[in-house]
Structure formats: C-alpha cells, structure tokens
Amino acid sequence: MTLYIIGIGLADEKDITVKGLEIVKRCNIVYLEEYTSLLQCSFHDLAKYYDKEIIIADRNTTEQGDTKIIEEAKNQDVAFLVIGDPFSATTHVELYKLAKQNDVDVKVINNASVLTAVGITGLQLYKFGKTTSIPFIEDHPNLETPYTVLKENMEMGLHTLFLLDLKPREEKFMTVAEALTILTTIENNKKDKFISQDTFVIGCARLGCSDFIVKAGPLKEILNVDFGKPPHCLIIPGKMHFIEEEMVARYF
C-alpha cells in the first residue's frame, strides 16, 4: 500500500493534475492539510469534485510524530493533499521521512506553488535568492530573520520573496501592509539602511488564481494598497535586468 503526497495547486478544485485526481479517486483515505496555505475554493466543492470524503489534517499530523497516517498507509492507499506543491513548505518533509523510516511506500505528485507563480511579476526565477517567511510579530517580538535574509540577498543583487504568516483556523492572514510595517520596524531598530519609504517593492495576492493582484511601486505607496482576500506575499527586488523592469512596469 502507498502514501501519496499530492499537490493540488493554488486556485480551485480543478487545479489538481489528472494524475493526482486519478490517485485520489482510488485511495481509501484522503487527508487535506490547510494550515500552511489557504484553500481558494470551498471544502464542499473540493470534496464534491474529487468525489471523496476528505479529512482535515491538523499540524500534529505532520510535525509532531503522529503516526496515524503512516499506520493507515501500511494497509491501504492514503492520499495527503497539500495546497500548492508538496515540498514548497518544509513541513511535509517530516511526513515523507516518517513514511520512509517505517518502510511505507510513498510517492509525491507535484503541482504549481507560489515559488513558481511569482514569475507572473516578470522577475526571473533564477534571480531570486533565499525565500523567507514573515511571522506575526506578537509571536516573535525579537524578529530579525526576514530582514537578515533580505540584507544577504540584496548584497548579492538577488530578489527576495517573503511568504506571509497565516492562521486559517483563526481566520487570521497577514497582509502586504502588515509585512511592510514589520520590516520597517526592524529597519528602524537596526538602522542598516536597507529599507526606506522609497524602497521599490512588489505586493501580490492570490497568485495562481484568476483574480490575482500584483502592484509595484515605492514602499510608501504599496503600504496603502488594498490587496483584498488572502493569501498575500511580498517581493523586494534586487538588481533587475531591463527585461524584468519592462515587465514589472506593467504593475505600476
């Protein structure tokens, strides 16, 4: 029997690949993980399209050694659905490792993720440096990592993608404005002059969906843009090629 870790894409229930859907339909048990991203269709529509009963998996399932899914996969086919691509979030590596450690056959079905969807901005993917997350400041009062990553990327002329925190169970999702405020606060404390009100930034929302938004401009202007529904992400470009500049200009 097999554990299938399946990426279901970024938009709605139809973003799953043909291969992924065929596997879901023949699996005995289907889980959905939705704490690292946000489902862009209703849970009902997803279950109806897949024609399957779907179980919501909590964080313990993949991060704290819960072996329930592994034990089930020893005797039957189990699908573990991930919004985006399975390994865009390091969280799911633990589930993969646990399956291997318990001699459970595990297969991965890839799909689109925000890491590739940012290409719609016109920035070249190979010119992105390390990706980092910005967590809610109340959970990390001494936060410096996102700023440190930005500094390192900027020194190499590379673009920086910031993934913004979300807590779906609490219906709490970080906005582009909140992320910029956090980075500005860190800058004010460190005074390294890597961020100012005139820093060129790109805010994005719902990448991969039909109603996606991309807005580019100085930080002081993007701070006031309403990007609408989550999830949001933020990019601070490094040194841009003229072709990148021409494409990004479409979003001013």
Structure description:
- By secondary structure, the protein is of the alpha/beta class.
- The protein contains ten helices and twelve strands.
- Helix content is 32%, strand content 21%.
- The strands form three sheets. The chain has a five-stranded parallel sheet with strand order 3-2-4-1-5, with helices on both faces. The protein has a five-stranded mixed sheet with strand order 6-7-12-10-11. The chain has a two-stranded antiparallel ribbon with strand order 8-9.
- The termini are far apart.
Short description:
The chain has 252 residues and is an alpha/beta fold. It is built from 10 helices and 12 strands.
Structural class category: alpha/beta
| Oligomerization | single chain
Portion of residues in helices?
25-40%
* Unreliable residue runs: none
Q: What is the straight-line distance between the termini? A: 52 Å
Order of helical and strand elements: EHEHEHHEHEHEHEEEHEEHEH
Q: Beta-strand level of the residues, as a percent range?
A: 15-25%
Largest sheet: 5 strands, parallel
Rg on CA atoms, Å: 19 Å
Please give the order of strands in the largest beta sheet. Answer: 3-2-4-1-5
**Helix count from the secondary structure assignment:** 10
Outline type? elongated
Kindly list the characteristics that best describe this protein.
single chain; 252 residues; alpha/beta; five-stranded parallel beta sheet
Topology:
Layout: E1 2-7, H1 18-26, E2 29-33, H2 43-50, E3 55-57, H3 59-63, H4 68-73, E4 78-82, H5 91-101, E5 105-109, H6 114-117, E6 132-134, H7 145-155, E7 160-164, E8 166-167, E9 172-173, H8 176-190, E10 200-205, E11 213-218, H9 219-222, E12 232-236, H10 242-248
Parallel strand pairs: 1-4, 1-5, 2-3, 2-4, 6-7
Antiparallel strand pairs: 7-12, 8-9, 10-11, 10-12
